[in-house]
Specification:
One of its GO terms (molecular function) is phosphate transmembrane transporter activity. This protein is an all-alpha fold and about 575 residues long. It has 23 helices and four strands. The protein has two domains: about 1-140, no CATH class; about 155-300 and about 320-350 and about 375-575, Growth Hormone, Chain: A (Up-down Bundle), CATH 1.20.1250.
């Protein structure tokens, strides 16, 4: 069959992309019978650029493979339901000897017969069509899944509300980096105590990463993310009262806030693995994660104004109340997966199910911990998440203090300059997401795309943070931080998209594991930064003599070293291929 396709392509002066796609399809159809399992069919069809394959053919094969039960070598695969019907409305001529394969009027073969494929009875066709009908699917010829969607998509609502949740996530997190300056003055805190307060958030954040991922994979991301947002919003609103009660109570309140925020990323990842087609993954995740940067922008920009007008407690009260309002909107608008959503159109439901791995729609049972933790690809994500978050959280929590203590800016000026890097991240994360999806659609392997994007996300910040030790002006420091964080945002199309690549069914658990390491970087990084700064103030020694030197130069050097280590680990250990079903 492939020879015939090649002959037909050569008969055209300039073979069209459609002819080239038919050649590729002929190669797939000529493979041994075992490749006709549902997962293999979906993988093969997803690898071809959608614009090149005839819609009717692609939809028909993808819709069939959803009822195969996953295949993958666990027994003989079911034959294509249209294999014996020369007049099938889905695809004319498939499975008929000495009959041309006609798609959109293009003859691509004349004697196609898959190896050892049995003929299919009318009852077999009826069985598959009945399953499609029960799922709310129309025949492929009447339901163009790729081109026929119009109007608002329900998955956009899910992605948009996840974006809003992540805005609130960092909005409530960064307000402490502004408020801690007047709080430290009021309560007489040292730099080490300020570091303790900043790091206490991460104590709780670490506790719920894996637990949140397991719960989201088992019961659904809607409930877990919703309760997480409500929990951390209430803890944020309670922060002023906790601070008034004493330092231990404040540390407990910040820890409880971290407990709520700890489930956000794993729950979101598990939810979007079910809602977002593979071809939209990078840009959807980039948009959601850009909500964190948008929250940083809004928090760092608004907090000084709210604080100067109403006092530092008002920052926590006002920001915390927004999460309660979000919770009620979330509960009334979102379901954990498309098959449970009563308001989604049958057309969009079919499109999502046809373009996501079947395993992603299944709730996880027992988590194969041994299998997960035995793979170097999983450890690549875990270790690189630690390396990435060290620098990210230092900037998130200490940037206003750097501008105030080193460059002598007032609170309002430091707030304005602290906003700029997060604006750059919000913009560049979406640029990176769209670029990554475009590269994949043009045939670049997912592994290559993830490695390139994450290398930019590591090496860019390493380059520009290394310059901060010699910068003496506010403008130069702001430029370095903007460039650093703008390039850091490429991580959203690298590291942060990789969990769904390698194991969509366990996306929540995988992100919980890696974000535990990321949260640990926040705990250790914030504390170490406080001690390094105290060492600089004390003439160069801290931690009982273990740290010699100190100050902001040492802070930036630690971050740069971890970025470089992360680059090496990512390039040698990561993959973009699915390794867990």
């Amino acid at each position: 069959m492939l020879d015939r396709l090649s002959q037909e392509a050569r008969s055209v002066a300039s073979p069209s992309p459609r002819c080239q796609a038919m050649q590729a399809l002929g190669s797939w159809l000529s493979r041994p019978r075992r490749v006709w399992s549902g997962r293999a069919l979906q993988k093969n069809m997803q690898q071809a650029p959608r614009a090149l394959l005839p819609r009717e053919l692609r939809n028909c094969v993808m819709r069939y493979s959803r009822y195969d039960g996953g295949g993958g070598g666990g027994g003989p695969p079911r034959p294509l339901p249209f294999a014996s019907k020369s007049t099938s409305p889905r695809l004319k001529g498939v499975g008929q000897e000495k009959s041309p394969l006609l798609v959109d009027g293009l003859a691509v073969a004349s004697d196609f017969q898959p190896q050892a494929r049995p003929e299919v009875a009318e009852a077999e066709v009826a069985e598959v069509e009945a399953a499609e009908s029960a799922a709310g699917l129309a025949p492929a010829a009447a339901q163009p899944l790729l081109d026929g969607l119009t109007g608002w998509r329900k998955r956009w609502t899910v992605v948009g509300l996840c974006f809003a949740a992540f805005v609130l996530c960092n909005l409530d997190r960064v307000n402490m980096s502004i408020a801690i300056l007047p709080m430290a003055e009021q309560y007489g805190w040292s730099s080490a105590t300020m570091g303790l307060v900043q790091s206490s958030f991460f104590w709780g954040y670490l506790l719920t990463q894996v637990a949140g991922g397991v719960l989201a994979d088992r019961v659904g991301g809607k409930a877990v993310l919703g309760l997480g947002v409500l929990w951390w919003s209430l803890a944020t609103a309670a922060t002023p009262a906790a601070a008034q009660a004493g330092l231990p109570t404040l540390l407990a309140a910040r820890c409880l806030m971290g407990v709520g925020e700890g489930v956000a990323m794993p729950a979101m990842n598990a939810l979007l693995a079910k809602w977002v087609p593979a071809g939209e993954r990078s840009r959807s995740l980039a948009l959601v994660y850009s909500g964190m940067f948008t929250g940083s922008v809004l928090g760092l920009g608004a907090s000084p104004h709210v604080l100067s007008a109403f006092g530092w407690p008002s920052v926590f009260w006002s920001f915390g109340s927004l999460g309660v309002l979000w919770y009620f909107l979330w509960q009334s608008s979102v379901s954990s997966c498309p098959s449970e959503d009563p308001s989604i159109s049958p057309t969009e439901r079919a499109f999502i199910l046809a373009n996501t791995p079947p395993s992603s729609q299944e709730k996880a049972g027992d988590i194969p911990w041994g299998q997960l933790l035995s793979r170097k690809e999983v450890w690549a994500i875990i270790l690189c998440h630690f390396c990435h978050n060290w620098g990210l959280f230092i900037l998130l929590t200490w940037m206003p203090a750097y501008y105030t203590q080193v460059l002598g800016l007032n609170l309002m000026q430091s707030g304005v300059l602290s906003v700029m890097p997060w604006v750059a991240m919000a913009v560049m994360a979406n640029v990176a997401g769209w670029a990554a999806d475009a590269l994949v659609a043009r045939g670049t392997s997912v592994t290559t795309v993830r490695k390139v994007m994450q290398s930019i996300g590591f090496l860019g910040p390493a380059l520009f943070l290394s310059q901060l030790g010699s910068v003496t002006s506010a403008g130069g420091a702001a430029l370095c931080m903007v460039a650093s964080q703008g390039l850091d945002a490429f991580s959203q199309a690298g590291l942060y998209a990789n969990h769904q690549d390698i194991g969509p069914r366990y996306a929540g658990v995988l992100l919980g594991l890696s974000n535990t390491a990321g949260g640990l970087a926040g705990v250790v990084g914030s504390r170490v930064t406080g001690f390094l700064l105290q060492a600089g103030e004390a003439g160069g020694r801290a931690l009982g003599g273990l740290v010699v030197g100190g100050g902001w130069s040492a802070v930036w050097s630690c971050a740069v070293a971890l970025y470089l280590l992360g680059t090496v680990l990512w390039l040698t250990m990561s993959t973009g291929e699915r390794i867990f079903d």
